[in-house]
Design goal:
ProC C-terminal domain-like fold, 12 helices, 2 domains, alpha/beta, 8-stranded mixed sheet, Rossmann fold
Length: 268
């Protein structure tokens, strides 16, 4: 049995995964074989995770578990270049947004075990959310291995694949929405006379505290929001302005567009 873990694509999410699990040895593999179009990324993984940079063909020939962490637009190129090397003994773990497990099965033309994962960037600090969905030929053992990987990076949930495009739009894209809200609050703080350092400290810790409060209390966010709003006070005046400027509508539309784009990526 081949005991190397294979990784094609050495971007930020692949880096977060390897950092989180502490290398291939954590999962019982003897070595980590990696491939990336940028040789410098391979060198980075060699230095930090004792990986062996090599050609994609060698990764497939020497590994049975393959993590495909390339951009969605690169998936077909990777599959086309190495189509004859895939076997039913492989497990393909896909991190590519929008690409369905059935697309891999049909493209390769085998009863290939595929597990689709949608992680997000807070995985880089061990606070991520990863959704996992099995293909038709993935076994419970396959799912246990994938869950073991991504549980090291934060929260891991098992879902039906029909929900993956929506999850991509929420937790996959969600950190960017949060960062934009934080950025906007920081800019607003500058507008009312606070310096940047103080604005960042206030906003970041306000968001952190609010999330912790919501998690610990278990209350619906609407109830917690109402608790901050005193009659005729400053907070309700600000909330009214946000509502009048369409904040809620903007989030609905943003999620809908991200959801539609995830579906489009699966068709390209």
């Amino acid at each position: 049995m081949l005991r190397s873990l294979g990784l094609i694509g050495c971007g930020k999410m692949a880096y977060a995964l390897m950092k989180g699990i502490g290398g291939a040895e954590f999962l019982g593999f003897d070595s980590l074989l990696v491939n990336d179009i940028d040789p410098e990324r391979g060198v980075l993984f060699q230095e930090e995770f004792n990986a062996v940079p090599t050609e994609a063909a060698e990764v497939l020939q020497s590994s049975r578990v393959i993590i495909l962490a390339v951009k969605p637009q690169q998936v077909r190129m990777v599959l086309d270049a190495n189509r004859a090397l895939w076997t039913t003994e492989h497990l393909l773990i896909s991190l590519a947004a929008g690409i369905k497990t059935g697309s891999y099965e049909n493209e390769i033309g085998l009863h290939l075990p595929v597990v689709r994962v949608m992680p997000n960037t807070p995985c880089l600090v061990g606070q991520g959310v990863s959704a996992i969905s099995p293909g038709r030929y993935a076994t419970d053992k396959n799912l246990q291995l994938v869950a073991k990987m991504f549980e090291q990076l934060g929260t891991c949930v098992m879902v039906e694949e029909k929900h993956m495009d929506a999850i991509t739009a929420i937790s996959g894209s969600g950190p960017a929405y949060v960062f934009l809200v934080v950025e906007s609050l920081m800019n607003a703080a500058l507008q009312v006379g606070l310096d940047l350092k103080l604005a960042r400290q206030l906003v970041v810790n306000t968001v952190k505290g609010s999330m912790e409060m919501m998690e610990q209390s278990g209350e619906h966010p609407a109830i917690l929001r109402e608790q901050v709003c005193s009659p005729g006070g400053t907070t309700i005046a600000g909330i009214r302005q946000l509502e009048e400027n369409g904040l809620r509508r903007a989030f609905f539309q943003a999620v809908e567009k991200a959801y539609e784009r995830s579906i489009e990526l699966g068709k390209d």
